[in-house]
Amino acid sequence: TMKNPVPQAASLLLEKLMLLVHIRPLPAGSGGETPPPAPGYYDTSCFKRGDLLEVPRTLFIHFGIYLGENRVAHMMPDILPSITGDRRQIQQVVTNKRLILGVIARTASVRVDTVEDFAYGGSILVNHMDRLFENQVLGSEEAARRAEKLVGATAYSLLWNNCEHFVTYCRYGAPVSFQTDKFCETVKMIIRDQRSVLASVLVGLASIVCLGVAPSTTLPTIFIPFFLWMAG
Q1: Cα(136)–Cα(171) distance, rounded to whole angstroms?
Q2: Which CATH fold topology does 41-176 show?
Q3: Residue 152: exposed, middle, or buried by beta-carbon count in 10 A (0-12, 13-18, 19+)?
Q4: What's the whole-number mean pLDDT along residues 173-178?
Q5: What are the C-alpha distances in Å from 199 to residues 42, 196, 202?
Q6: Helix-helix angle 197-210:5-17, to 10 degrees
Q7: Is 163 noted as a catalytic residue in this protein?
Q8: In the sheet that 71-77 helps form, which strands lie side by side, from edge to edge?
Q9: 122-138 pLDDT per residue, tens
Q10: What CA–CA distances, in Å, run from 67 to 102, 103, 131, 141, 203?
């Protein structure tokens, strides 16, 4: 019997949308990456070793574990660790091209960056997830040590091994991703709700665009700028 393609398509769609977590917008007319904030942009005096840091992005949240001395361990999709062992190249700030290729190849690295490079101008929340893990918060030093042990190349998957899985394992001992679960449930609700015609059409069109399938000439050309507006 033929397997239902919907779950697989939804999974692929989620993988594609995960790109929006890290891709950094380029200024108009610029051909390079947007420079990160200068050192000292963030006040790190309120951060403690082992803290869980959150940076809200357009659709998702990026997570990291503070290691002290302006250093953050976090997971990012990256193709470079799978093709070279040059630590100096790998340690450079991950570009959009490296990130996209990492998502496609399902490879990533747990890396240590400055707070500025980690947050990239976004606002930072500290230990905001602790309220969801009552009596499960590990010691701060234990959380930091777990993060340090995992530094290096690793497999990547939005559904099973992303930046949120990494930090929840380090600080709470259980690798989970609430934002992925919530997004999956939203997609399922849209698919099940036959009355949401507009929402179903948008999800279908987003799947076509994100999965790389050539759209039909009958597709409304207005959809592409609309989708980009939603993503931004």
Answers
A1: 8
A2: endopeptidase fold (from Nostoc punctiforme) (3.90.1720)
A3: exposed
A4: 91
A5: 39, 5, 5
A6: 70
A7: yes
A8: 125-126, 52-56, 61-68, 71-77, 107-114, 152-155
A9: 999 999 999 999 889 99
A10: 25, 26, 21, 9, 40
Q: Which residue has the tokens 């609430």?
A: 178
d(CA 118, CA 47): 14
CA distances to 11, 75, 187, 194 from 55, in Å:
24, 13, 23, 35
Residues in the chain: 232
Long-range own/partner contacts, residues 10-15 (CB < 8 A, 24 or more apart):
10/184, 10/187, 10/188, 10/191, 11/158, 11/159, 12/210, 12/211, 13/187, 13/203, 13/206, 13/207, 13/210, 13/211, 14/158, 14/159, 14/180, 14/183, 14/184, 14/187, 15/103, 15/157, 15/158
- Run of H or E residues at 178: helix 178-192
Given 163, 170, 184, 210, the catalytic residue: 163
3-state SS of 114-141? EHHHHHCCCCCEECHHHHHCCCCCCCHH
Amino acid at 198: L
* pLDDT at 166 > cutoff 50: yes
3-state helix, strand, coil in the chain (%, to 5): 45, 15, 40
- Name the pTM for this structure: 0.69
